[in-house]
Amino acid sequence: MTKQVLIKNANIVNEGKIFNGDVLIEGDRIVEIAESISSKSSDTKVIEADGLYLLPGMIDDQVHFREPGLTHKATIETESKAAVAGGITTFIEMPNTVPQATTIELLEEKFARAAETSWANYSFMFGGTNHNLDEILKVDETKVAGLKLFLGSSTGDMLVDDLQVLEKIFSNTKLLISAHCEDETTIKNNLAKYKAQYGDDIPVALHPIIRSEEACYISSSRAIELAKKTGARLHVFHLSTEKETHLFDKKKKLADKKITAEVCIHHLWFTDEDYTSKGTKIKWNPAVKTQKDKDGLWKALLEDRIDVIATDHAPHTLEEKNQVYTKAPSGGPLVQHALVALLEMYHREVISLEKIVEKFAHNPAILFDIKDRGYIREGYKADLVLVDLNAPWAVNKENILYHCGWSPFEGTTFKSRVRYTFINGVLAFENGKFPNRTHGERLTFNRG
Ligand SMILES: O=C1C[C@@H](C(=O)O)NC(=O)N1
Q1: Ligand 1: which of 157, 158, 181, 284 to mutate, judged by most atoms within 8 Å of the beta carbon?
Q2: Which one, out of 43, 70, 121, 289, has a CA that is 20 to 30 A from the CA of 206?
């Protein structure tokens, strides 16, 4: 008989509602959701979830797991395991690896590596450059999550700045285009100004002045304009400014939106005041900006001008991060702590549980047309998370799972913790331990 798991008496958070009930898993799928389900056989594993909240597994649409080529920073195995401990059951990984995922062959190698080692479900973005239009046009949109374009330079030198090429890509690809938007000319001019003043040792607090609001706004506006002109499907990654949020529409149903937006945990949590205590640990591209920006991002998220929450999990070693401003790479690890950070914001009455689930599970599933995931529904894959909202713990070196061994949240106490995570019906994480070595599946899409 197929293996069964019965989750009893959970507060189920799903599709805008919270209700008390039981969920029965058989094999890799949810087979029944009801007020009360009795155990069907003696070897059904029963989880008494009294007081816990059951959420669909989070879907993180932007992570950097550094494989191949940068495995001193992270691997698919280490980071997907950390993700599972953090309640993320599915991730979409970025192409700025070494080599970059800019040919179909290289991309398929990443899929093969993930099939062997990933704990969580996965897909990848194909990388666009100034030179691989032909290859972009060969990519089958039913097989990959989308196309990533760096419209501002960041880790991995993948800047696409040939405007003619860009227009051809937007006009011709059927792939969902995810864009990193920061205007390169603005950044370069700002950087030159402060380099003249400070040399390489620029105070990190100037990062949001160098990678400025203006840089973000110019680039996002340009990408949106191009998407409108060409009819391309555009998803703007990691908005970091209040100003940009007004470029996005709040009225339409998500499935009908052709232009969507993402916000990341670090931009919802930190502000420029934190550079003093955290230094380059919170150096990200785009930069963490002002309190006004953070407030604006929250407002846009809650008003549905921003559609999804992600992490942009981007680990670097501490040695790399602890360099002077111009040498310290941008990015930091987040997948283990993103959900509990959002639950902290729930405790602070900033966001509801229903909204967290909508933005971090339902909406990425809708936006990427992910098949059978992102919801607690009968017939869907059993990617599930049970969280305890009242079990405080502090992030420290002993409980950090990232390969790089540090977190921008070190020293932070979170009220909530992830108790159980299921990947395709298999219990991957249980109270700090990993009872089963799960193997995530390649995402399939309702497209084409
Ligand atoms: O766009 C990016 C890339 C990422 C990385 O390190 O890969 N780090 C960032 O801060 N932003």
Answers
A1: 284
A2: 70
Q: What is the pTM of this model?
A: 0.98
Q: In the structure, which protein residues have their CB atom closer than 6 angstroms to any atom of ligand 1?
A: 64, 96, 154-155, 180, 284-285, 314, 329-331
Under a CB-based contact definition with an 8 Å cutoff, are residues 224 and 247 in contact? yes
Domain segments of the chain as ranges: 58-367
The pLDDT tens digits of the residues spanning 367-407 come to 999 999 999 999 999 999 999 999 999 999 999 999 999 99
Tokens, residue 264: 């990341």
- What ipTM does the predicted assembly reach? 0.98
Give the Cα-Cα-Cα angle 97, 102, 105 (nearest 5 degrees): 100
Instruction: Name the nearest CA neighbour of 27 among 380, 377, 375, 374.
Output: 380
CA distances from 333 to 266, 281, 344, 372, 409 (A): 10, 10, 18, 28, 9
Whole-number Å distance, alpha carbon 311 to ligand 1 midpoint, is 11
Q: State in Å: Cα 379 to ligand 1 middle.
A: 36
The Cα 32–Cα 75 span in angstroms is 36
SS3 content of the chain, % helix, strand, coil (to 5): 30, 25, 45
Q: Measured on CA atoms in the order 114, 116, 117, 119, is the torsion positive or negative?
A: positive
**Pairing mode, strands 88-93 and 121-127:** parallel
Clarify whether 312 is annotated catalytic: yes
Rounded to the nearest whole angstrom, what is the distance from the C-alpha of residue 98 to the centroid of ligand 1?
Answer: 14
Distance 234 CA to ligand 1 centre (A): 19
Task: State in words which class domain 58-367 has.
Answer: alpha beta
Which residue lies with its CA nearest to atom 7 of ligand 1? Answer: 155
Count CB-CB contacts under 10 A for residue 441. Answer: 20
Residue 180 CA, closest ligand 1 atom number: 1
Residues 220-250 pLDDT 10s: 999 999 999 999 999 999 999 999 999 999 8
CA 25 to chain centre: 26
